[in-house]
Design a protein that fits this description.
single chain, about 400 residues, alpha+beta, 2 domains, five-stranded antiparallel sheet, three-stranded antiparallel sheet, about 10% strand
C-alpha cells in the first residue's frame, strides 16, 4: 500500500464529482430548476455544435441530459459516465465543462463576479459571461462551498486513516523483524550466518578411514557411500538457502510456515547423517543386518542418486515467485524421509557406543548423544504438536 500523503493531497483535488446533482435534487421544485424535458423545452432550437437542441431521438445532445437552470445551464452524462456542465452562452455559443476536475481548475474556470453573472473560461481560455438569476448564483456558491467543506472533511479523514495504517504497518514490520531475528538466532547460535547443523566432514573422514575394509566386502559400496556424501552436502546447502530466505518472509504467517519447513529439513538431515555414519560402522563391524536395513531404506528414498536434492538446489538458486510452492515440496520430502527413517529399529546402546568409538578415532567433535538428543527432541515436538492438533 502507498502511504504517500503528498499523492493524497493531489487526490483530494480530484474528488469533485457528483456534488452538483444532489443540489439539483434539493432545489428541483424551484421555478429556476429544469429537469431533462424542461431543458429541452427551454432551449429548443439552440445550437450545440452541429446539432440543434430539439426533441429528436437520434440527437446525441438529448441522451445524457440530467438537470438544468433556466438561465442557460444544464448537466449531461456521456456514455463513459463522465458528467459535464453545459453553459449555453447564446443560441450559437456554449462552453462544455467537465465536472470531475480539480478545485483549482474549477475556481479558475468558473467564477462569480457579482450577484448576477458567472464567468466561464473554456478549454482555450476564452472567457464568457453568463447572466444568472440571483438564486442561480446562490446555487453555484452553495456548490463551491459544499465542495470545499466536504472535501476538507473527507481529506482529513483520509489522512488520519492513512497515518493509522502507516503506523500499523510500521509496527507489523517491526514485530516481523523481531520474529525473524529470534528465529535466525535460534538456528544460528554462534551468529556466523550459517544454520547450526552438524559441522565438519565426519562422514567422509570415517569413510576414508575404513575404505580398505569396505572394498574387501564390496568395492561398489564405496561408490554408494560417495553418493550419500554428495546427498548430505547438497542437502546441507539447501538448508542454508532456506535459512537465508527467512529474513525475506513478507509476514508472520509465511515466516511460521518456513520455520516449520526448515525444522523438518534439518531433522531429516540429522537423521540421514546419523544413519549414514551407522551404515559405515555396521559394515566394518560386520553387522550386515543393520547395514542392509539402513541401505535398503536409503535405496527406497533414492539417497544414492541425490537427484531430488540437486533439483531443489537448482530451484533454490533460480527461485523467483515460486519459492513458497518449492518450500512445500521440501516439506513433503522431509516428512517422507523422517517417517521412513524413524521406522529403523537397529539403534541400541551398543550401536551408539560403537559409533562414538569410531568417531573418537577420527578426532570428531560431534557428540553422538547430542545428535540423538536433537533428533528425539524434534520427534517429541512433532508428536506433541500433532496431539494438540487432534484435540483442537
Amino acid at each position: 500500500m502507498d502511504y504517500n500523503l503528498e499523492n493524497e493531497e493531489v487526490k483530494r483535488e480530484e474528488l469533485i464529482i457528483d456534488n452538483l446533482l444532489p443540489l439539483f435534487e434539493k432545489h428541483k421544485t424551484k421555478s429556476w430548476v429544469l429537469d431533462k424535458i424542461g431543458v429541452i423545452n427551454q432551449f429548443a432550437g439552440w445550437k450545440f455544435g452541429k446539432w440543434n437542441l430539439v426533441m429528436d431521438e437520434i440527437n446525441p445532445t438529448l441522451q445524457g441530459i440530467l438537470w438544468g437552470l433556466k438561465s442557460g445551464v444544464y448537466v449531461e452524462e456521456d456514455l463513459w459516465s463522465k458528467k459535464f456542465i453545459i453553459f449555453l452562452i447564446d443560441k450559437k455559443n456554449y462552453v462544455r465543462f467537465e465536472i470531475p476536475n480539480t478545485i483549482k481548475n474549477l475556481k479558475n474556470s468558473i467564477s462569480i463576479k457579482n450577484s448576477k453573472t458567472i464567468t466561464i473560461c473554456n478549454s482555450i481560455n476564452l472567457k464568457h459571461t453568463l447572466k444568472l438569476s440571483e438564486p442561480e448564483v446562490e446555487f453555484f456558491k452553495e456548490w463551491f462551498e459544499k465542495f470545499e467543506r466536504d472535501l476538507d472533511k473527507e481529506f482529513k479523514n483520509k489522512i488520519e486513516h492513512l497515518k493509522k495504517e502507516k503506523l500499523k504497518e510500521t509496527e507489523r514490520l517491526k514485530d516481523l523483524k523481531v520474529s525473524q531475528t529470534n528465529v535466525l538466532s535460534e538456528l544460528d547460535k554462534d551468529g556466523n550466518g550459517e544454520v547450526d547443523v552438524v559441522e565438519g566432514n565426519d562422514f567422509n573422514t570415517l569413510l576414508k578411514k575404513h575404505q580398505k575394509s569396505i572394498v574387501e566386502v564390496d568395492r561398489n559400496y564405496i561408490q554408494q557411500f560417495v553418493k550419500v556424501s554428495s546427498y548430505l552436502k547438497t542437502k546441507k546447502g539447501n538448508i542454508q538457502s532456506i535459512f537465508n530466505s527467512i529474513k525475506d518472509t513478507p509476514n508472520q504467517e509465511v515466516l511460521n510456515k518456513y520455520i516449520e519447513i526448515l525444522k523438518v529439513d534439518i531433522h531429516s538431515y540429522n537423521l540421514i547423517l546419523f544413519n549414514s555414519l551407522n551404515m559405515i560402522v555396521s559394515l566394518v563391524e560386520d553387522d550386515m543386518i543393520t547395514f542392509y536395513e539402513i541401505y535398503e531404506m536409503f535405496d527406497t528414498l533414492n539417497m544414492f542418486d541425490s537427484k531430488h536434492e540437486k533439483d531443489v538446489s537448482q530451484k533454490l538458486t533460480n527461485i523467483g515467485v515460486g519459492l513458497e510452492s518449492l518450500m512445500y515440496e521440501i516439506r513433503d520430502m522431509g516428512n517422507q524421509i523422517s517417517n521412513s527413517i524413524d521406522q529403523l529399529s537397529y539403534v541400541t546402546e551398543e550401536s551408539n557406543k560403537q559409533l562414538t568409538e569410531q568417531l573418537s578415532e577420527i578426532d570428531s567433535t560431534m557428540k553422538v548423544g547430542n545428535l540423538i538428543s536433537t533428533i528425539n527432541t524434534y520427534q517429541n515436538y512433532k508428536i506433541n504438536k500433532n496431539t494438540k492438533s487432534l484435540r483442537g
